[in-house]
Structure formats: C-alpha cells, structure tokens
Amino acid sequence: MSVTRLCHIKDHLQSEKKLETMTHVHRSPLTTHVLNTAQGAPAANLALSLYRLEGPPNLQEWRPLTCGVTNSDGRCPDLVSPETFTAGMYKMRFETGDYWNKLGETSFYPYVEIAFNIIDPSQKYHIPLLLSQFSYSTYRGS
C-alpha cells in the first residue's frame, strides 16, 4: 500500500479528533520545505513520513509517527505536536521516485531518508530538502 494511501486513511481516522482539537491549534516544532530545484518551484504533492528510533539499544527499530503530503508551497505543516516531540533520533522519508513519476520524469533516487538527532525538543527544527532527479541536499534550517 502506498504512503499516500496510508496518509489518506490516517487523515480519515483522525478527522474526529481534529474537529475536537481545532480550537487548540499548535505549531509543529519540526517543519520541512521541499524545493524542486530542477524546475525552480516548490515540490507539491510529495509524500513523506516521519519515524523515531525506539527500543533497547540492541533491538532498536524505526517506529512510524506520522505521514503527510507537501502542500502547494512544498511544505507539510503539523508534522508532530509539541507534546509528542521528544529527544531522540528521527528520520524523514521522502517518496521522491513517486513524485518524479507523477511529473513524467525518472529519478535516480527512489526515496530520500534524512536521519537527525533531536537533543532539545523545546527548540524549533527545520529540515529543508533541495531536490532534482539526480541530486539532493539538506541542512538544518531555522
């Protein structure tokens, strides 16, 4: 099952909870912005997922936390709530192959995974992704 389909199912299941919490808007302490550098435009409709490394040291596994799709500006707001954002190792997985296929292009990278450490969860973290069919780069933004 595709990541995009899983995100739609998750959104459907959480719709009632979203209605209950609409008055309690939060800003995600973790944001991303994906730019299609080949076209000089935001990478809209790119599926992504967020994971946290959990478990005892010899049995650690990546646990899925959330998924989403970038908006028309290449951003995916509300990835994680401040309450669930804790210190630890995380990774974002961007479904770049599917993204390029939808644009009628091929890509060398079927996906991009960016692993990063969160030391102080009270800070804001921004993970930009600059993307073309044959290269990508990232950095810790502000």
Automatic annotation (TrEMBL):
Keyword annotations: Hydrolase, Purine metabolism
Quaternary assembly: Homotetramer.
Ranges of residues in domain Transthyretin/hydroxyisourate hydrolase: 26-141
Short name of any one Pfam family annotated for the protein: Transthyretin
NCBIfam families tied to this protein: hdxy_isourate (TIGR02962)
Catalytic activity: 5-hydroxyisourate + H2O = 5-hydroxy-2-oxo-4-ureido-2,5-dihydro-1H-imidazole-5-carboxylate + H(+)
Annotated family: Belongs to the transthyretin family. 5-hydroxyisourate hydrolase subfamily.
SMART domains: TR_THY
Lineage, uppermost ranks: Eukaryota, Metazoa, Chordata, Craniata, Vertebrata
InterPro entries: Hydroxyisourate_hydrolase (IPR014306), Transthyretin/HIU_hydrolase (IPR000895), Transthyretin/HIU_hydrolase_d (IPR023416), Transthyretin/HIU_hydrolase_sf (IPR036817), Transthyretin_CS (IPR023419)
Protein's name according to its UniProt entry: 5-hydroxyisourate hydrolase
Native source organism of the sequence: Huso huso
EC number per UniProt: 3.5.2.17
